[in-house]
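Reopening this one. Same input as before:
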Amino acid sequence: GDRPVPALLVAQVANGVLLPAVALFLLFAVNSSRMGRHRNGLAANAAGGAVVLIAIGLGCWAVDRALTG
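Same output, byte for byte:
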Protein backbone atom coordinates (compact mmCIF):
# COMPACT_ATOMS: atom_id res chain seq x y z
CA GLY A 1 0.00 0.00 0.00
CA ASP A 2 3.03 2.33 0.01
CA ARG A 3 3.30 4.99 -2.65
CA PRO A 4 6.58 4.93 -4.61
CA VAL A 5 6.50 8.60 -5.66
CA PRO A 6 8.33 10.01 -2.59
CA ALA A 7 11.08 7.40 -2.97
CA LEU A 8 11.45 8.23 -6.65
CA LEU A 9 11.71 11.95 -5.87
CA VAL A 10 14.42 11.32 -3.28
CA ALA A 11 16.32 9.15 -5.77
CA GLN A 12 16.05 11.85 -8.45
CA VAL A 13 17.35 14.56 -6.10
CA ALA A 14 20.19 12.29 -4.93
CA ASN A 15 21.15 11.61 -8.54
CA GLY A 16 21.00 15.32 -9.35
CA VAL A 17 23.42 16.08 -6.51
CA LEU A 18 25.74 13.08 -6.85
CA LEU A 19 26.30 13.13 -10.62
CA PRO A 20 27.99 16.57 -10.72
CA ALA A 21 29.94 15.81 -7.54
CA VAL A 22 31.33 12.57 -8.97
CA ALA A 23 32.15 14.21 -12.32
CA LEU A 24 34.03 17.02 -10.56
CA PHE A 25 35.87 14.55 -8.33
CA LEU A 26 36.98 12.55 -11.36
CA LEU A 27 38.21 15.69 -13.12
CA PHE A 28 40.32 16.60 -10.09
CA ALA A 29 41.54 13.01 -9.68
CA VAL A 30 42.85 12.72 -13.22
CA ASN A 31 44.76 15.98 -12.77
CA SER A 32 46.39 14.94 -9.51
CA SER A 33 50.17 15.04 -9.34
CA ARG A 34 50.02 11.37 -8.31
CA MET A 35 48.92 10.52 -11.87
CA GLY A 36 52.43 11.40 -13.07
CA ARG A 37 52.77 11.23 -16.83
CA HIS A 38 49.18 9.95 -17.15
CA ARG A 39 47.63 13.28 -16.15
CA ASN A 40 45.08 14.87 -18.46
CA GLY A 41 46.19 17.15 -21.24
CA LEU A 42 44.49 20.35 -22.37
CA ALA A 43 41.98 18.66 -24.70
CA ALA A 44 40.97 16.08 -22.09
CA ASN A 45 40.57 18.81 -19.46
CA ALA A 46 38.40 20.86 -21.82
CA ALA A 47 36.21 17.83 -22.50
CA GLY A 48 36.11 16.98 -18.78
CA GLY A 49 35.16 20.56 -17.95
CA ALA A 50 32.35 20.42 -20.49
CA VAL A 51 31.12 17.16 -18.95
CA VAL A 52 31.18 18.72 -15.46
CA LEU A 53 29.22 21.78 -16.67
CA ILE A 54 26.65 19.58 -18.40
CA ALA A 55 26.38 17.38 -15.29
CA ILE A 56 25.83 20.47 -13.11
CA GLY A 57 23.17 21.76 -15.49
CA LEU A 58 21.39 18.41 -15.62
CA GLY A 59 21.70 18.04 -11.86
CA CYS A 60 20.12 21.44 -11.23
CA TRP A 61 17.37 20.62 -13.71
CA ALA A 62 16.67 17.25 -12.06
CA VAL A 63 16.55 18.73 -8.56
CA ASP A 64 14.32 21.60 -9.70
CA ARG A 65 11.99 19.24 -11.53
CA ALA A 66 11.77 16.87 -8.57
CA LEU A 67 11.05 19.65 -6.08
CA THR A 68 8.62 21.71 -8.16
CA GLY A 69 6.84 18.88 -9.91
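So the earlier flakiness isn't reproducible anymore. For the record, Residues 9 and 66 are 6 Å apart (CA to CA).
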